[in-house]
Amino acid sequence: MNNERKINENSKNEQLEAFRVEDKGKKLTTNQGMKVSEDEFSLKAGERGPTLMEDFHFREKMTHFDHERIPERVVHARGFAAYGEFQVYESMRKYTKAKFLQNPGVKTPVFVRFSTVVGSRGSAETVRDVRGFATKFYTEEGVYDLVANNMPVFFIQDGIKFPDIVHAIKPEPDNEMPQASSAHDTYWDFVANNQEAAHMTMWLMSDRAIPRSFRMMEGFGVNTFRFVNEDGKAYFVKFHWKPKLGVHSLVWDEAQKISGEDPDYHRRDLWENIEKGHFPEFELGVQILDEEDEFKFTFDILDATKLWPEEEIPVKIIGKMILNRNVDNVFAETEQVAFHPGHVVPGIDFTNDPLLQGRLFSYTDTQLIRLGGPNFHEIPINRSVCPFHNNQRDGYHRQTINVGKVSYHKSSLAGNTPAPASAEEGGYVHYQEKVEGRKVRERSESFRDHFSQASLFWNSMSKPEKKHIIDAYRFELGKVKSQSVRQQIVDMFANVNLDLALAIAEYIGTKPPKSGGTNITKSSPALSQLNTKYSAETRKLAVILTDGFNGKEVQFVLEGLKASGVQPEIISETLGTVRGTDGITFKADHTFLTTDSVVFDAVYMVRGSSKSVEFNKEAGQFVYEAYSHYKPIGATHDGKRWLETDEMGQSVGVILSDDMKRFIEEFGEAIAVHRFWNRTVV
């Protein structure tokens, strides 16, 4: 029996050996074995022209990539969503004929899915990553999808490279580690050898990569699109979502702890606020550029690794979206929703942005494998609110029961119906752009600059933001095992800023670059999160109480803070009722065992008559952690006296007072500030 098992094992090993392939040192080929001469650029009509359908290498590469994982999304697998409505502030008729952008009196239903990019469905939500921000508008002309991210640029310039960046940033295939993280060799090796990723990597290492909430992050369409008006005049356009609560982030230590404390932190935040009636609001902004201004800038407007500086091309705010209803079933709605940048309506069109051109192919291909066939548009969450009529039939999961014998065009039996609609009847007509050029796999010279906007981003950061970026590079590259890759990255980012590169090199065991730097001195204040809106609205406040607290005063303070939108939650030694003077009681929402300071925005230390040493220790740890994360701390009476004996009591952002009206005002203002970066933390 043992000999038979050994023979079988040897036979299986021989079978497996035939399928083992070592790619190192080999020439690149298609899956059919044909050698490939170029893998950096898709086949285009002219170096700035559109990608051609005959590009079989692009199709093979992208098709394989789109079908690599089932059943979850290849990217953006970890997501959460909500319903809402959108209204335009004023008619945009001058720029576009899209009907949902015409009448301020019309509310357009929307469905928005937020997501992380790299991690699997089961990963934590506060990881360092790009966030998806995809919006489905159910318009009277059909579905329009604005498929955005919370960063305005991307890693690559050409869609053919998308499988490469995702392969590089996903867990490494030999051991499938690490999950939902860019802190490993293959991602940084990709960056070092594909330096167009420099700008996006600066964003990824910034605070933008660890948002405080889905409700407090921007959204960007990334790609350059077109508006087209009734007269056929076109404008280049980029889309922006601006959160009414401002743009705010976590600190890295906080984000890591939240991943363990509450891996569902972002979805819980969105769900709970909508359930409470604190509906998230975002304003839609557009940057609009006349076609004749296409070449007036130092960057190519079709390059997805570049942003349009708001100081040069202002953002025009044109409407507002409110998210006001949670989903009923996460799988049926959030998981089955299918977005596609090619889902457009008349008045919105495409450009020759080579990343966008790749996306226009990729998304449909992905839905075919993920949702089981060509009828994914019939799933309720994806169905248009206006009727659809065509000659498509059958296929997996078909729900429409088509009547009649005709399923083709043209026909006399059905009177040539359904018939195409003219532009006057609302039919979609592609913008007629002149395209000419040789069939080439090349990239325009205007796409060659990889560092100037990375330098612009760095120049635009405040002192604490720069420190966070440096710390992020030190952490990420400290996880990279390859000395060569670490050195390549340090040398590469010397082109962005020499001081940045030197600060990184100091901590990761590489040689400091001897030269580098840039002559880019321009900055863009809009890129710094310190230049954002500040509000106490919906901020979560931890209130530390024990029996014996001053009932009337605490009640007065909490009512005053709630009036400014603060959401207090009671933390005590045990769950149950916490009893104060004057017969006033509160129900404890948490104990120190069931929650942590990292899931709150501020702490109000009240205490009470408890003399428990254990309580003092737990409360002290709770408060000090919030303090070390630069959060506002408030205290009155017993809590005030307890903090006065500590160095925290004299620090900025720590409000101590027995004057209740003054305390409410000052502490409310501190909560709105959110972080006190000039605080000394030991």
Which whole number gives the mean pLDDT? Answer: 92
Number of domains: 3
Q: Helical percent range?
A: 25-40%
* Strand tally: 20
**How many helical stretches?**
17
Largest sheet: 10 strands, antiparallel
Structure class? alpha+beta
CATH-level-2 architecture of the largest domain: Beta Barrel
Low-confidence stretches: 4-9
Query: Whole-Å distance between the termini?
Result: 67 Å
Round the Cα radius of gyration to an integer and report it.
Answer: 28 Å
CATH superfamily of the largest domain, by name, is Catalase core domain
Briefly note the CATH topology name of the largest domain. Answer: Catalase HpII,  Chain A, domain 1
Tell me what portion of residues adopts beta-strand conformation: 15-25%
CATH first level of the largest domain: which class?
Mainly Beta
Description of the structure:
- With about 675 residues, this protein is of the alpha+beta class.
- The protein has 17 helices and 20 strands.
- Strands 2, 3, 4, 5, 6, 7, 8, 9, 10 and 11 form a ten-stranded antiparallel beta sheet that branches. The protein has a six-stranded parallel beta sheet with strand order 17-14-13-18-19-20, sandwiched between helices. The protein has a two-stranded antiparallel sheet with strand order 1-12.
- Helix 3 packs antiparallel against helix 4, helix 5 packs parallel to helix 10 and helix 14 crosses helix 17.
- The longest helix is centred in the middle third of the chain and has 17 residues.
- Keywords: Heme, Hydrogen peroxide, Iron, Metal-binding, Oxidoreductase, Peroxidase.
- Its cofactor is heme.
- InterPro entries: Catalase, Catalase_AS, Catalase_clade2, Catalase_clade2_helical, Catalase_core, Catalase_haem_BS, Catalase_immune_responsive, Catalase_large_C.
